[in-house]
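2024-03-11 09:14:02 INFO worker-7 job=invfold-0412 stage=load source=structure_tokens
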């Protein structure tokens, strides 16, 4: 099983399955296999008892979420499937009972934006002393600070690892480009230096997700489905299919490679090619023995295997000890002092 945030040089990518299985265990199983195949670090579901988080009078939503509900024993089986396929299993609890159950089968907890100010619930989950990822949709920076202080106080082993992670999030499905405001993620990065900071993406496609990685997201949560046209359930349309997820993950890894190290120096291959790309001084015209070299006598040609253009000033005013034809390189041994 992969360790949570083991390598902070790579963005930790969570395939957000959510309820896109629509209550079908076999589809949920297939989602795990496809997310693992795509290279995701984790797959995340939602665990709940519908009666504990939606009022029954809200009939349409209640019926749909009841249909999508998987049982605890099914989530236990899914966690084993994830472990076997080397992908972390995470499920967001949406009620107290589900949180207590999930504590038995997962090592990381995700708190949804809808519950980020539910302090009794946060108190319970933080008592498990496991890393917590909190989405920050629906709240401003001051409320995020309040949540941070509350969790830091309640997680006993806070100092041992990045126990709290915050994900910038816009709780719209999908948000408008003007609502995304990825600079908020950078504000979180500056404010919470002992936390991992990332982005929970509800936007169609991958352009915003990729930009979040470029801006330093340590965690990226992206909705995932087997088929974007699976049903009319809105989450499928804002999700990536397996191939799109694979492409995003490869792009993420490439971005980290492209960013490289914080040192400005020629690369290994540049060093090999330096002489090929540089220029050496050569005769612009036919030059005679005994002639004093001036700038006007010279032309600068590749490769830079002799007197390079950067050193030309050292040789101006010296005397040729032989004839040099136009276009021929002038060597150090061809020049003498007055």
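2024-03-11 09:14:09 INFO worker-7 stage=emit residues=338
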């Amino acid at each position: 099983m992969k360790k949570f945030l083991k390598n902070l040089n790579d963005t930790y990518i969570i395939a957000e399955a959510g309820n896109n299985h629509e209550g079908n265990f076999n589809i949920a199983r297939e989602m795990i296999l496809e997310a693992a195949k795509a290279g995701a670090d984790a797959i995340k579901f939602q665990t709940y008892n519908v009666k504990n988080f939606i009022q029954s009078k809200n009939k349409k939503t209640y019926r749909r979420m009841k249909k999508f509900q998987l049982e605890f024993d099914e989530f236990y089986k899914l966690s084993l499937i994830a472990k076997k396929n080397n992908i972390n299993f995470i499920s967001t609890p949406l009620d107290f009972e589900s949180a207590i159950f999930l504590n038995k089968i997962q090592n990381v907890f995700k708190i949804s934006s809808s519950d980020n100010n539910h302090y009794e619930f946060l108190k319970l989950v933080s008592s498990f002393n496991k890393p917590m990822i909190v989405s920050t949709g629906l709240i401003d920076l001051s409320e995020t600070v309040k949540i941070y202080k509350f969790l830091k106080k309640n997680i006993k082993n806070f100092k041992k690892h990045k126990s709290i992670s915050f994900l910038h999030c816009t709780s719209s499905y999908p948000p408008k480009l003007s609502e995304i405001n990825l600079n908020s993620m950078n504000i979180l990065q500056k404010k919470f230096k002992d936390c991992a900071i990332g982005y929970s993406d509800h936007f169609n496609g991958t352009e915003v997700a990729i930009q979040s990685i470029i801006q330093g997201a340590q965690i990226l949560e992206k909705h995932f489905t087997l088929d974007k046209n699976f049903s009319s359930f809105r989450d499928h349309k804002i999700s990536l299919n397996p191939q799109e997820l694979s492409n995003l993950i490869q792009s993420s890894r490439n971005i980290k490679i492209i960013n490289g190290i914080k040192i400005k120096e020629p690369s290994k291959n540049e060093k090999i090619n330096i002489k090929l790309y540089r220029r050496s001084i050569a005769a612009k015209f036919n030059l005679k023995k005994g002639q004093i070299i001036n700038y006007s006598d010279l032309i600068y040609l590749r490769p830079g295997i002799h007197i390079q253009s950067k050193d030309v000033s050292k040789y101006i005013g010296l005397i040729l000890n032989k004839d040099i034809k136009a276009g021929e390189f002038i060597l150090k041994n061809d020049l003498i002092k007055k």
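2024-03-11 09:14:09 INFO worker-7 stage=report msg="The chain has two domains: 12-259, 268-336."
2024-03-11 09:14:10 INFO worker-7 job finished
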